[in-house]
Amino acid sequence: MEFTRDLNHLYVTAGNGVWRIDGLGSVYTSDPDFNDKVSFSGTGVNATTPTYTTATKISNTSYEGIAVNPNDDDDLLLLAGFNGSNRRTSNASTAGTNGVTSVALGSVSGVACYDGIIDVTDSDRLVLGTSSGVLVSENGGTTWTNASAGFDGTPVYEVRQSWRTFAEGNGRPGEIYIGTFGRGIWSSSSYLSSPSLNIAQFKTKLLAFPNPTTDNTTLQFQLAKAGNVTVQVYSITGRMVKNTTIKGLEAGDNSIQLDCEDLPLGTYIVKFVSGKQVDNTKFIKM
């Protein structure tokens, strides 16, 4: 199973096909009717029909694994295990029943492909977990290079990338993690992003209080110069739940009130941007 970045789509490979579940981004797990709104359960006369989500079988072909481009909901890798060919789609988020359009990837020399990623900064860079290690392509899957030093010949069943940015509170953006069978978990910082050198060194001193909060919270910060401030609030799953711009603030100490009454209970990440000033903090709604 793979979620898209905005959580609106979930791609599932199981049994004899690939399904796309739509509508998940509009429902919170804190909703007491969450299961009734999103769940597909039972079969035949006992099958339930959710009220918020729909399921579309976009491919009748069975695949061992899938990977979604964090920047493009239409772009999926379909990984065939030992059976068939590995493919890449171009219309996954809109495809109707058995309507997905895809092209075959280059030969992987007889190994089974179980999992993979499409790199967050370069969609031509693909990383696959196989029955004999890891393969990397720098040209969209046309050719492949073995990247399994230290665990060559070991099956790799999980490949993940830390795709969030520094501004979203991620200290290791771009790092790739490999889960092997019996040889542990490995990481690669070869594609690790660096913080922008253009970000000003001025300390924003962003602070949220009260924290935890039951309704509203205040953001306190310093501006290097007068200007506008954009505040984005993300759920812990990465879904943006608020996006506010405050215009005409003066340089120096400032504070704004953030209305949290409509937010479900949980942990939230605040992204702060004002010109070249970028900062983030967290708060808890209780």
Question: Short description, anyone?
Answer:
With 286 residues, this protein is mainly beta. Helix content is 2%, strand content 45%.
Please provide a written account of the structure.
- The protein has one helix spanning 34-38, and strands at residues 2-3, 9-14, 17-22, 54-59, 65-69, 72-79, 87-89, 102-104, 113-118, 126-130, 133-137, 145-146, 156-161, 176-180, 185-188, 207-209, 216-223, 227-235, 240-249, 252-259, 266-274, 277-285.
- With 286 residues, it is mostly beta strands.
- It folds into three domains: 1-104; 114-138 and 147-195, no CATH class; 207-285, Immunoglobulin-like (Sandwich).
- The strands form six sheets. A four-stranded antiparallel sheet has the order 1-2-3-4, with no helix packed on it.
- The two termini are 30 Å apart.
- Residues 194-201 have low confidence and may be disordered.
